[in-house]
Amino acid sequence: MAWILLFIAGLLEIGWAIGLKYTEGFTKLVPTVLTAGSMVASVVLLGLAVRTLPLGTAYAVWTGIGTVGTVILGIVLFSEPATAIRIGCILLIIAGIAGLKLTA
């Protein structure tokens, strides 16, 4: 169950990271409220997950999910570059996340 909570927390981290772009400097009410809500929910779920998961592993997986998801959505939504080096780095992050999960 802790891994599921952590995964959802990671998805919410992607949501608030992308949401920051849509708040336009916190000048738009709805995106700002949704972004803030995602931030709080993400951290709360992370906090619940670390009750049973190792802190270092959980934090690395949480930030890894957020990082990979945000980079991919940045490419898809905001036309950020999808170079071979960026894709390779994403794959390295995924490998690190998988390695940490396998050793937890």
UniProtKB/TrEMBL annotation:
Q: How does it sit in the membrane?
A: Multi-pass membrane protein
Q: Does the keyword Electron transport apply?
A: no
Q: Subcellular location, in the record's words?
A: Cell membrane
Q: Supply the Pfam families for this chain.
A: Multi_Drug_Res
GO: which molecular function terms? Answer: transmembrane transporter activity
Keywords, A to Z, come to: Cell membrane, Membrane, Transmembrane, Transmembrane helix, Transport
NCBIfam families linked to this entry:
PRK11431.1 (NF008512)
Stated name of the protein = Guanidinium exporter
